[in-house]
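Provenance

Sequences were taken from public entries as deposited. Structures were produced by running a predictor on each sequence independently, with no templates supplied. The record for RND transporter from Siphonobacter curvatus is shown for reference.
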Amino acid sequence: MNRKRQILSILAGVWLLSLSSCRVRHTPATLAPVPVPSAYAGSLNDPNTDSLSIGNDPYNRLFTDANLVALIDTALARNLDVKMALQRLEVTRAQYGISQAALRPQVDAVVSAGVDRYGRYTLNGVGNYDTNFSEYVTGSSIIPNPVPDYFVGFRSSWEIDLWGKLRNRKRAAYNRVLASQEGRNVIVTDLVAEVARLYFTLLSLDAELEIIRDNVELQQQALSLVEVQKAAGRVTELAVQQFNAQLLNTKSLEGGVRQQILQAENQINVLLGRYPQPIQRGISIREQQLPATVAAGVPAQLMSRRPDIRQVERELEAANIDVAVARAEFLPSLNLTPYVGLNAFRLGVLGNVESMTAGILGGLSTPVLNRRFIKGNLRVTEAERNRSFLAYQQVILRGVSEVVQSLKGLENFRNVADYQTQQVDVLKQAATTSDNLFATGYATYLEVITAQRSVLESELSLINTKRSQFLSLVDLYRALGGGWQ
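Predicted structure for RND transporter:
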């Protein structure tokens, strides 16, 4: 009875010690905040309208083309990078579960058997031999030689978290779970943006192909006209050759654009996790409309909206906690190894209640000769923490710069598109005028060729500018952290 009381007293003391140790924790250092500008450079956005930022809009609200929305939906469901990101998330969740288990006692069910033969001149050999002569040792209590040892029961090991080391490891693992979740959101944001970029690129290539075909038709008509004029003796063979050369050059452009269309379609299909097949398109890029107003909010909101910033922030928090764990390695650790079960040196009495045994061993250890190793580990974790802090600053700087660049791109390309639209109208009128003058003999064939070439180049430039407008919108949406919500 006294022995049971002693065991209970020891266990109660250990329990109280474990509770008190919760207050003695090696807390991580506080990280310095990273300053950000109050507004984007050159932006006219009202900071009070931040909630209107397009980064808060789901992609099916920003993009009104039903075909594009359907492609993005398919990509999010089937993209292999997204699926791999989910598996990486499962790995971090499992690691977090491991860190939680380290706070609890490890209990093993044990069935063991062994045998020892003690020498005549050993402590156990002499003691066992002498014990068997006692009048109180009879029957199954007589110690055989060799001595079997049978055990059936439970053994446990438990490290008491005196300094919060194990709890900090759990916190670091939890932050890495959150970082992994944000990493998946980064992939989703990039995927939405990339599908949209390729889709608008595909629409612009379709428009280029249409422009090339229209110009081929016009240039064929011009070639037929100059052949008639040659037959009438009004122009030479050189004029026919020049018109024919321009027509062949324009036709050659079609093959290059077709190849670009094929490449863009294949890239979209890869993102959608499927083999090559045609991509359904909506209305032409000429008829696609940009939002009337585009709000970007304020830079401070990027901290909570952009998943790459949130990911690096979580990784920084985990790295900072790792430093606290490394410092706690210098402090003593308390380990308990209790056991309970049935133990006997005769198999026949193993099930007897008198074979019941229990015990507990506690040990307090502190590093002595391996402190250099622990110091090296501390330096590594501090360097990783500092690197993570620099990466955090870098991703914020890059995020603000991307927003400014995309905002300016929308504004600048809108102005360029307005001027180019006027240019195309003027050049089309000039081409018509040159045809009429050439037919009446008031313009040379070179002037006609130049006018036709200018129309083709200006129309292609206008389509490229409209594509740049939509790509700037997509880049701004991604830069503001849109698409993953």
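The radius of gyration is 39 Å.
The chain has two domains: 27-103+163-329+372-479, 105-160+332-365.
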